[in-house]
UniProtKB/TrEMBL annotation, chain A:
Transmembrane feature ranges: 46-63
Superkingdom, natural source: Bacteria
Protein name: Uncharacterized protein
Presence of keyword Transmembrane helix: yes
Alphabetized UniProt keyword annotations: Membrane, Transmembrane, Transmembrane helix
Protein source organism: Allopontixanthobacter sediminis
From TrEMBL, chain B:
InterPro entries xref list: PepSY-ass_TM
Keywords associated with the record: Membrane, Transmembrane, Transmembrane helix
One Pfam family this sequence matches: PepSY_TM
Superkingdom of origin: Bacteria
UniProt keyword annotation of Cell inner membrane present: no
Native source organism of the sequence: Allopontixanthobacter sediminis
Full protein name: PepSY domain-containing protein
């Protein structure tokens, strides 16, 4: 591998930084799944909203791929 | 992480996935229609939950003894196995069978309107959905099939954990959500696999773990019956089982149970001699009285000869976990939008499994060392694929 290629590489982020977004998505998913169990009406709406976050994250990534 | 640690996790991910992929694909494909089984059933047959008017059968209606007589008159010579209540409509169901311990395929499920006493006939059966459900639950192999699929589910959980462990070092040079499309097909597929895997992780983890718990449902119920239930009803241990002719009033039994668990709504009654009771009791299962506990059932054991309460006690922790696992696995507790979310995430899971298979099929000899390098140093836009 040439020196230029190495120089052009972005710095390696810390593991905490890499996992920050996945952790938010994980917490949103599980919170949505559990809160939806606590009743009908508002808790269900909360579940839909929270579980939509990971889905929208994937949709966004696919929409802007290049 | 050292290179050898990464290699170990890589091999765990590879083999836990490879062994279970075919079965997981089957579970996803059969699970998709099962998410919508209520809607499909309503399309095919009459949707009694929506069409019957009157108070919920769990709350009020004609006497239970009268409903049971109507049911038994339709199935002469058979015995009652279960009576189940609706929390939303007057629909009441009675399951009968030739003997108290009849297997599932010998049971008959009958529908009734508890507010009018009208018999609505046997539950409409849908061969295709029944086939799909059976395949999804036990591969038509009974308990061994269920346990086998439970093990496949456990491997799925292992694959999710190991995949996440590998995701962290791999993504250290790439921003979240990177999908490299101008590189080799392998890179393109790998990025999709990683993105969808990390995005759907929470849902896959919950559906995977609850699926494993559901696979152990039968042993857990057997364990409750031979353990805590036997203990609650120890004074009956030597007695002969109570026969149909000696059954006391169900309404009196319900009243005794409700005086022990006031304010609770009944979900179903297990009749004497079945999997959910003893040979001497009506086991009346009540829902919790708060939203969070409505999925947790508490049984009241009522002497089937005298209608007097023997004991009422919450089920053991593992059985409670099983009861909470059902809605979390089925996704049927938050209306149609939640079911659509379930379907989208199931489709994402199918794509994760499929891209995993492609990545494995396209491997080349000695490729594993390059894969480990790629993970250890972090994939990057400029690095060789």
């Amino acid at each position: 591998m040439s020196g230029a290629a190495i120089k052009s590489r972005p710095r390696r982020a810390s593991v905490a930084r890499v996992l920050a977004v996945p952790a938010v998505l994980l917490v949103a998913s599980i919170a949505g799944l559990v809160l939806g169990l606590t009743g009908d009406g508002f808790p269900d709406g909360l579940a839909w909203g929270l579980l939509s976050i990971p889905i929208l994250a994937a949709v966004y990534a696919f929409a802007r791929r290049g | 992480m050292t290179r050898s640690t990464i290699k170990a996790w890589f091999l765990v991910h590879k083999w836990s996935s490879l062994v279970s992929t075919l079965f997981l694909l089957m579970l996803c494909v059969t699970g998709l229609p099962l998410i919508f089984h209520d809607e499909i059933d309503a399309l095919i047959g009459q949707d009694y939950e929506a069409s019957l008017a009157g108070p919920a059968s769990a709350e009020a209606g004609l006497p239970l003894d009268a409903m049971l007589q109507t049911a038994l008159a339709q199935r002469p010579g058979e015995v009652p196995l279960f009576m189940a209540f609706s929390q939303d409509s007057p629909l009441l169901t009675v399951t009968t069978g030739p003997t108290p311990d009849a297997p599932g395929d010998r049971m008959t499920l009958l529908f009734f309107d508890r507010s009018t006493g009208e018999a609505l006939g046997p539950a409409p059966s849908d061969g295709v959905m029944d086939f799909i459900l059976q395949l999804h639950t036990d591969l038509f192999l009974g308990l061994p099939g269920m346990l086998f699929l439970g093990v496949m589910g456990a491997l799925f959980v292992v694959a999710l954990v190991s995949g996440t462990v590998l995701y962290a070092p791999f993504m250290r040079r790439l921003p979240f959500g990177t999908l490299r499309t101008r590189r080799s097909r392998r890179v393109k597929v790998l990025d999709q696999h990683n993105l969808l895997g990390i995005v759907a992780l929470g849902w896959m983890m919950v559906v995977g773990v609850t699926g494993v718990i559901n696979a152990f449902a039968d042993p857990l119920v057997d364990n409750w019956r031979s353990g805590e239930l036997a203990e609650m009803t120890a004074q009956y241990a030597g007695d002969a089982p109570v026969g149909l002719a000696d059954y006391a009033s169900l309404d009196a039994a319900m009243a005794s149970a409700q005086s022990a668990l006031p304010g609770r709504s009944p979900q179903f009654i297990g009749f004497p001699g079945g999997d959910w009771s003893t040979g001497h009791h009506y086991a009346i299962f009540f829902q919790g009285d708060r939203p969070l506990t409505q999925h947790l059932l508490t049984p009241a054991l009522v002497d089937a000869r005298t209608s007097e309460l023997t004991d009422a006690r919450a089920m053991p922790a593992l059985n409670q976990a099983l009861m909470l696992s059902k809605p979390l696995h089925f996704g049927d507790y938050g209306g149609l939008p939640l079911k659509l979310i379930w379907a989208v995430l199931t489709a994402a899971t199918i794509w994760i499994l499929w891209t995993g298979v492609i990545l494995w099929l396209r491997r080349s000899p000695a490729a594993i060392e390059r894969r480990i390098d790629e993970i250890a140093t972090g994939a990057a836009a400029g690095a060789a694929a």
